[in-house]
Each structure stands twice: as structure tokens, then as C-alpha cells.
Specification:
Length: 346
């Protein structure tokens, strides 16, 4: 054992590889205070990759299941915090998915402790990063959509939306069957740019199937808000909104609704915006995604007679974009495709 305990909130920790097994052994002892100290020490230790690996590969995870039912809410919350730390690495996410922890963990979405619920959402959001995790959570989508209408904490809303996005990218149908377009639409005008960004990302995933495109068109409030978000101060919000519009204008109703909302000048304005050359690489990727979505949306809108007529008047702008020496090759090809569709004659 290490020296005398100096922090009463943490358990004394053994040296080397004995530490993790010793602390998991402490979790089986009587007394909530003992278990809480052991969990706190484990949360400290698993920040080290070697200890995290030992925790998820040593057969210890099954011991956490009984702690989900602990009478002390602090123990339940700290257990979920430990799981959140373990799922920070892919090996931890895979281990949790391979275990029997997911069903009892999901029951804690209704826990009386806010800290516990928040930590559960943190875990689910990380599990959803893996396709296998998103698939495992698909049956939970209706409940998560319902939670979205009730949870007021912004971090929890962000985590919910992130989980729903990854699940819906795998299969949008559960979200669409749960009134997802309407529920997400209410979050598009949120004061937080993070919530707007995540809501638009989830909406983009729902707008991929044909039924999703129809639902976006049928909701009277969604498309007007999305057109407004094209001028948001956050580039990712703009890009995700443009992505939904890009998906929606594939169908005739989507084309007509967006043209009625006068979306063309807004889209063309995004193409002509000047940006700093010293933008960080991540910002350049976001701007590229935005421009690609805009160009694909314009290409689809050019298939409508009134869309083509308006875009023919803007050919110089598009031709200048295609000919610019500094333009990314993907953007150049997408611009050339748009020009071909606009100038096509039967």
C-alpha cells in the first residue's frame, strides 16, 4: 500500500499493476463511502492509458453493474463518470459494447440524480461514435427524442443531439418515426450556437431518406429557419443548414419551397464571400464543407426551370469560382458540374 491516506475522498492506492485490481476489489466492500472513495481513485487512475487498458481488459467491468443500483446517488453518478472516462478510448467503447452493461446503464436515463443522468449521456454519446454503438442505441432513439423535449441543461441537450446524429446517420427511420423533424426543428433557433449546430447536424441525417425530405418540406417552420441559419455566425451551423437544404432540394417540393423562400441569393452570397488565407486547417475544412453543400444545392435547384433562369444570370460568378487558381479541386469540379446543369439544353 502507499503511505497514509491524505485525501479522505480517495482510497489508498497500491503500487504498479496492483492498483486497479485493488480498487475494483474495494467496490465490493460494504459502505457507500468506501465505494465512493474507490471510484474516485479509479477515475484518477484511468487517465493513464496503461491503467485504462488494464481496467477494460482485466474482466473488471462486470463489477460495475451492481453499482448502477446502489442506493447512494453519488455512487451511481461516480460509476457512470468512470464509464465515461473508460469510453474516452476506442478499446473502452468496444469493451462496454461487448459487456452486458448497456441495458442497465440506459435505465439510468431516468435516474433521480442529474449528475448521474448527465454522465450516462456522456457515455452514450461516446458509444455512438462507433457504428456498432450507434446500432446498439437505435432502439433508444424514441426515448432520446422524448428526453430532448424535457432536458433543459445545454450540455445534456448537446450530448443528446450528438447521439441522435450518429444513430440517424446509420438509420434515420427511428428518428423520423419519433417526430424527429419537428422536435429538432425547435432546437434550430436555440440561443447556443452549439445546440444549433448539433440540431442542424441531426436534421441533416434525418433529411437523407425520401421520407425525411418530405417531412422537412411539410413542416412549415423548418425550412425558413434553415435558410436563416445560412447566415449564422458559426460556420458549422451554416454548413449543416446548407447540408439539410442540399438534401431537401433533391425532390421537387423541396426545390419549389426553397425557391419560394428566396434561397438562391443567400447561397450565391456564400460563394462570393472572402475569407482569410491564414485560417486554421480545421476552419478551412468547415468552409469547404459549406461551399460543397452550397454548390450541390445550386446544382439541384438548377433542375427547376425558374431556378435555372435565375442562375443563368449568375453564371459569371460561378465561372469565376471555377477558374480561380486557389480553388480546391473538389470545389472546382462541383462548380463545373453546377455550370453544366445550369447551361444544359435539351
Amino acid at each position: 500500500m502507499a503511505g497514509a491516506l491524505t485525501d479522505p475522498t480517495r482510497a489508498p492506492v497500491a503500487f504498479g499493476r496492483r492498483a486497479v485490481p485493488q480498487l475494483f476489489g474495494e467496490l465490493q466492500r460494504a459502505g457507500a463511502a468506501v465505494r465512493l472513495r474507490a471510484l474516485t481513485s479509479l477515475c484518477d487512475l484511468v487517465h493513464e492509458p496503461e491503467r485504462l487498458h488494464q481496467a477494460v481488459t482485466g474482466g473488471f467491468l462486470k463489477q460495475l453493474k451492481v453499482l448502477f443500483r446502489d442506493e447512494d446517488p453519488s455512487v451511481r453518478a461516480k460509476t457512470c463518470e468512470l464509464l465515461h472516462l473508460l469510453t474516452s478510448h476506442s478499446i473502452g467503447r468496444q469493451a462496454v459494447l461487448a459487456s452486458s452493461l448497456l441495458p442497465p446503464l440506459c435505465q439510468l436515463l431516468d435516474d433521480s440524480s442529474f449528475s448521474c443522468r448527465r454522465n450516462v449521456h456522456r457515455v452514450l454519446s461516446r458509444l455512438a461514435l462507433l457504428p456498432a454503438g450507434a446500432e446498439a442505441l437505435l432502439s433508444l432513439v424514441p426515448k432520446l427524442m422524448l428526453k430532448l423535449t424535457k432536458e433543459e441543461d445545454e450540455e445534456v441537450q448537446m450530448l443528446l443531439l450528438s447521439t441522435l446524429t450518429h444513430c440517424s446517420r446509420l438509420d434515420a427511420l427511428p428518428g423520423l418515426a419519433s417526430d424527429g423533424v419537428s422536435l429538432l426543428g425547435r432546437k434550430l433557433s436555440h440561443r447556443s450556437s452549439i445546440i444549433r449546430r448539433e440540431a442542424a447536424a441531426a436534421m441533416m441525417a434525418l433529411s437523407v431518406p425520401m421520407d425525411g425530405k418530405r417531412q422537412v418540406c411539410e413542416d412549415a417552420e423548418v425550412l425558413p429557419v434553415l435558410v436563416g441559419l445560412l447566415q449564422d455566425k458559426d460556420v458549422e451551423v451554416q454548413a449543416n443548414a446548407a447540408g439539410v437544404i442540399m438534401n431537401t432540394v433533391i425532390i421537387t417540393t423541396g426545390k419549389q419551397r426553397c425557391l419560394d423562400l428566396d434561397v438562391l441569393p443567400v447561397l450565391l452570397g456564400l460563394l462570393s464571400e472572402k475569407h482569410r488565407d491564414d485560417d486554421e486547417e480545421e476552419m478551412k475544412k468547415r468552409r469547404k464543407a459549406l461551399i460543397m453543400y452550397v454548390l450541390r444545392a445550386l446544382t439541384s435547384l438548377a433542375e427547376a426551370p425558374n431556378g435555372r433562369r435565375l442562375l443563368l444570370e449568375q453564371l459569371p460568378l460561378l465561372e469565376k469560382k471555377a477558374e480561380a487558381a486557389e480553388v480546391d479541386q473538389d470545389i472546382r469540379r462541383a462548380t463545373q458540374t453546377a455550370i453544366q446543369v445550369i447551361t444544359w439544353t435539351p
